[in-house]
Every structure is written in structure tokens, then in C-alpha cells.
Fold this sequence. Notes:
The protein is α/β, with parallel strands linked by helices and 386 residues long. It has helices at residues 10-19, 24-35, 50-56, 119-123, 131-146, 177-188, 208-217, 231-237, 241-257, 279-289, 315-327, 359-365, 379-383, and strands spanning 3-4, 60-61, 67-72, 78-85, 88-96, 101-104, 108-110, 125-128, 164-167, 200-204, 221-225, 265-271, 295-301, 332-334. S-adenosyl-L-homocysteine (SAH) is lined by residues 117-119, 168, 172, 203-205, 225, 268, 270, 300, 302-303, 346-347.
Amino acid sequence: MAVNLLDFDLEGLAAYCESLGEKRFRAVQLYRWIHQRGESDFEKMSDLAKSLRAKLAGVAEVRALPLISEHRSADGTIKWLFDVGDGNAVESVYIPEDDRGTLCVSSQAGCAVGCRFCSTGHQGFSRNLSTGEIVAQLWFAEHRLRGAEGERANATNDTRVVDNVVMMGMGEPLQNYAALVPALKTFLDDHAYGLSRRRVTVSTSGMVAMIDRLREDCPVALAVSLHAPNDALRNELVPLNRKDGIGALLDACVRYLDAAPRDFVTFEYCMLDGVNDTPELARELVKLVKGRVPCKLNLIPFNPFPASGLKRSSRERVMAFAKVLQDAGIVTTVRKTRGDDIDAACGQLAGEVQDRTRAHERMVRAPVRVVRRMDRQDGPLQETKA
Length: 386
Ligand code: SAH
Ligand code: SF4
């Protein structure tokens, strides 16, 4: 099969060009044509030496992901479903905002972590995406939207459409580390997408050893999906917590901040009705992180899907939880749900992944423990609007 040039970061492409007997600056030209111009036809790369174009023809290609479908939400969110072969599909979601455009990118077909509240987790794991398949999502989105559509009203001189990438689509990015890092490097490279390190976010369910490696290899913004303030509850919601535990995870976050482009870690916390959303747990969360990890909290209203058996916390409960954190001086935001009319919201991405591991059945047999709603008596808190 032809070499997929989307698999290479600039170093990799330079090495590949050298293997064809070409100089490094040719690789820079080629890289710019592919990523900055969105060109996949070597013949159209007009200033590229004819000799190189001839060498590439037949042995290399810019391999896009076959598009299965495109859905547009009333709020402007766009979800694309891509075919990755063998009955598997992955999704990317474009979220336009007033001042920026965010692309949510997938790293795996399915996911092996198996979080209880996540649709991808319920599908089980199919396979890792290659670097080229990760990069192809941004390549496609950026150039499709930059094209005739002029997706953003203020896209004048600065024609970039996607200026924020979050690895929050399907899959656990740090379980596909070898493919992830060159993809991140292409997102950041000034000869490619030139995104700021602060605007590329890796979201992880918390793989301690890999957080340390990312700090060494390619520090970008870090989001950690915490979802619980103690090991007993987190073990149930995020099964890989049983390996290292929250203490080791928080220590890794602190180490990460030495090298990170931002001076805080974002903790994501999916609000599950009656499971992890009580004021007691909010207070426990404050005790856990305060003075230990510089962080912001991002509360995500749970996006229900059939088979999860879980419910979204009410707005009042989310606000009460947020207030406990804010009163303790922790910057807390509540994520706006976008694109849920097209199943593009967090955790709803399922693609067409086949259920190979029967993870779904395992989870249905072992329902999540529901905590007692101690805060029912806490009248004033429930009325607070944070
Ligand atoms: N595997 C990585 C990144 C992908 S999930 C991770 O877990 O961080 C991206 C975010 O969506 C995570 O914070 C995850 O906890 C959250 N999420 C998963 N399922 C969800 C759901 N059904 N509703 C709301 N958020 C969900
Ligand atoms: Fe995997 Fe993240 Fe979903 Fe957990 S929340 S199953 S780690 S994709």
C-alpha cells in the first residue's frame, strides 16, 4: 500500500524525503502544501520539484478518511462520521464559537477503558487509529470549512477555521501514545496548522505513566477526567483508576505542570444524577485538590444514551455542586452542551464500532452504585444560582 504522508510529522517527512534522495527543504514545501493548503494532488503542488513529484507518484499519497456522513446541529455544531475499515467508524465534531472554532478529534475506534457513563466505552475497543487517521480529521475539517463555505463570519485575513483541538472524541489518547505524539506535533508545527500549545488539549481518563511521558515528549494543555473525589467511587466509574489511584494521578498532574503551557490542569467531572453530584462529594473534591494541584473544574452535564442506565444531574444540583467549589476558590465552569440534537455531545460518540469485547453486557450486569442523596435537606444550596 502507498505510504500515507499524513502519518508523518515534519521530522518523519524529512526522513522519508531523504530516503527518496531529496533534501530537507523539499519536505518543508511538501508538508506546507499538504497541511496549509490542503492539497492532496502532487501534480498541483506547482513549486515542488518535478523530480520529487515523479518519485511520490505511485508510492505515496495523502490518504483522507472516507466520509460516511455529515450532520449539522441547529447550534452550528457539525459531526462527521468517518469509515476506518472493518465495520469501524470514528467521529469528529466541529464546535463554532464566537471567538474560535474547536475540533474534537478521536484517537481510537472504540475505547478499552470502559467508563460507565460513556457511549464509546460501552462499545468496547476495536483498534488504535494511526497518526495519519488522527491528523486526517483536522486536515479534512480545516480545509472543508475553510473552503467556499467561509464557516466563520470573521474569517478574513486569518483564514484558519479550527484554532483549538481537543482530543476528546472517541478513545483514550494516551492508550494510543505512539500515534498520538506525531499527530500533536503536526497540529503544533508552524509549517502545518501552527496551533498554540495552549490550544491543543489532551484529555485523559488518567494514565499516570503516560502523563509523565507526554510532559517529556510534547507538553500541551492537559485535561483529566476525574469524575469522583475518592478511589471507591472513581474505581466504579473509571475502571482504570484501580491501577494507580487518585493520589498518584494528582501527583502526575503536579509534575506535568512543570512543563505544561498552562499553569493549571482542567479536571472534567461528568455530573451523574445521584451518583457523584452531592454537596458532600463537592466538599470532598475541594479537600482533595485544594492547595495540591493548581486546577480548574469543568462540570459536564451527563449526556444520556440508551443502555447507560444513568441520568443527568438537574441544573440545580450542578449549580449547587459548582457553588461549593467556587466558594472554596476553585475556578469552575459548567460546560454548555452542544450538538446533542445530532448525538455529537461529549460521550455520545459511538460510531459504528462493533461490540467485540461485550463490554456493554458486562456493564449492564454490574450497575453503578447510587449514593444516598444527603443533600435533600440542604434547601438553601439547591436554590443558589452560581
Ligand atoms: N478518553 C478521554 C477523552 C475522550 S472522552 C477521556 O476520558 O478523557 C472526553 C470527555 O467526555 C471526558 O471528560 C469524558 O469523561 C466525557 N464524557 C464521556 N461520556 C460522557 C457522557 N455520556 N456525557 C458527558 N460527558 C461524557
Ligand atoms: Fe474511553 Fe474516555 Fe469514554 Fe472513558 S470517557 S470510555 S476513557 S473515551
